[in-house]
Amino acid sequence: MTQDERWVVKWREVMDFMTVNKRRPSKFVDEERGMRNWWKHQQKLFNAGELKEERVEMFNQLLELGERYKHINQWM
Questions:
Q1: b/e for 32-66, b at 16 or more Cβ within 10 A?
Q2: Of the given ranges (2-11, 31-40, 64-73), which has the lowest mean pLDDT?
């Protein structure tokens, strides 16, 4: 499996998780921590302009979905 194929698998895993659970992966849940760390690393690459061009559009889809499920503090 190439790096690009592994990247797409991780991207699909995070997209599916958010679609099913209607929330972002949590850093506090062991099973979700890997997805969150992957997402944060990709976001750092994206912000630095180092994310590969073919991945940018797919990552933008992930960001749009993540914005929809952004955590809102309910303790106000």
A1: beebbebbeebeeebeeeebeeebeeebeebeeeb
A2: 64-73
